What does this fold into?
Amino acid sequence: MGTAEECHIARDKIAENLPNEIVTHIFQYLALRDRLAAAQVCRRWHAVACDHRLSADEVMFFHDNLSQYLPVLQRSSRAFSHFVFKEMELGDKLLDFWDRFCPSLRSLRIQACNLSEKTLVDVLSRCPRLQRLQLSGCRELLMSGRVLESQDDVALLRDTLAELRELSLDSNRYLSDALFNRFVAIAPALEGLSLAGCPVSFHVGLCKRFYPHTDARPLASESLLTFDNVLRLVAARAGLVRRLDLGHTLLDNVALERLCRVPGLRLEALRACNCEQVNNAAVMALVELQPGLARLDLSRCSRVTDHALLAVCARMHALVSLNLRCCGGVTNLGVAQLSRLVSLEELDLSQCRLLTGEGVARALCPAMNTRLRELRLTGLELDEATACLLAESLPALTLLDLGFCFNAVTDRSLQAVCRHQRRLRTLVLAECNKVTDAGLTGMGVGEPAQPSEPAQPSEDVRVRLLSVRNGERLADPFHKISLRSKAEQEIVDDAKLKTLVSEVCEQQYVRTDDSLANLAGLRHLNLCGCNRITDVSLKHAFSFLELRHINLSKCHQVTETGMRSLAANNPSIEELIMNNCYVSDEAMICFVRHSPRLRHLELQHCEELTDAVLDALGESCGCLKHLDVSYCGKMSPEAAERLRARLPGLSLVRAASLHVQAAGWDFIPPPPPTPLSGLRRLFRR
It folds into this structure.
């Protein structure tokens, strides 16, 4: 027996003899899809994968129809703890389902569903371990105003939901003071409350109209939701309430200051997204009265300026997350003080149009920062030097968003990111069209990798590498003077660059530390609009075992060769977005046949694709749940229907504007006839 075979058998025996506790611990590091695949290896691993400790964070999402999943769920021996229902009818036919899963339920989200008042009480009365409840956009439930009308129901649910900590009633236009009071009454241990998008009335005169007697309020209004009523209940629970979400409401500085002055209230998180009435005075009052905030969201608050940000940086030293997206009044002066927030882990400065690279560098790069985990800088006026400095100074980032930073993201800055950001899980470079194959493959920077000792390139290739590295145009030895236009010259240069990078990659003159492949743990990658990327990058730089979501929209130079390499080297892809691409049938068929885990696919405006792609999806992608083939002119509605019939789990097929190829309909319909009144005016002229 050979040595290699003996080692293989020894490894198999070790795997078989591992205790279940160790296998369970190993499975905790696997993603959900990986655990599902491992559960099919043997019965023992299947039993381990069903351990409740592994499924504690799994969320069951149902959209539009539940009947096809009921038999499978009823036979399952697993106990699921989190359910989401969207745009469904939840009636009495699901009583067995509720009896089966409600006792172990920890979170329940009901979004835009049709259910009666009695059904809601029956469901909640079966959930003694529920910790989070979200009722979003439930118009039919709240329209009558009779939900939880019975005091007996309220008392029953108050005793049952003793562990309920989070209550979200966002986007409910029929929510009133009376309904709000009833929902709060069934949550005696409430810590987090969300009223985002609800019609909360902050106007004092309107409140006085419905509550003329301020001393006593015997009955809550059944037609209006007032901030005074919300504030009164928050004051009654001041010792417990820690998180509030009043985003997308008319929250103003007076209301926010009144909220902050509630005796005993110690907020940890406040979300005031898109509250355009919030200004500097409100933020300064918040800083003075609630300095212990850990999470603050002021995105799209256009009246917030540097004065408010300076106050935040001076007092809120415990801040962990700060969102200032689309705060147009914030400039370099205020952002420069962000370095004082030593506990900051998440920062969003996207679309703050007055910020420049100088302010961002002073804020985030005065020294090495190992705490910041997520950074979003979409649409800022940054430069290449700032992007390189950010990559060097923030080594602990797991999310980096530099989308629409046209001047900052170049080959050089991208290679700096690949060299220093080893922990990145999400990278967004949308519309950064200066990125080329040279940056993604890491060619032209430094010396060849020492361990492998690849062959040295020729002197001519070395000169051209240095030209690419320095950003110079590739020289043409035969034509000293070019009569091409600027656009034509760019096309010629891109073609030469593709040839050069391919040649260098084949010679293995690539330093992996500067290649995108260095980000071994990457899971989400957005390269939408990076139209200078070709098959060379997909072949030599895209190799990620954990990559699940990738966006290659408007990458017009990707062909069958690149798609074949993408599928072969990235086995975990679940979501692919390739809108507005010139990809062919052969390329997509090759990809889908090697991507059995594919669940989400978008191919809008891919005009070269035909019904053959839909047939290949039906044969190879049994896990597909979402498909968008809008404006694919060579696909027929009949093929889309065949795919839907073949994949009953396909919840959505958007087939808008598909070309109709049925007999007698393969023509452009004529315009509608001109009205008689229009003809009369035409003849009069």
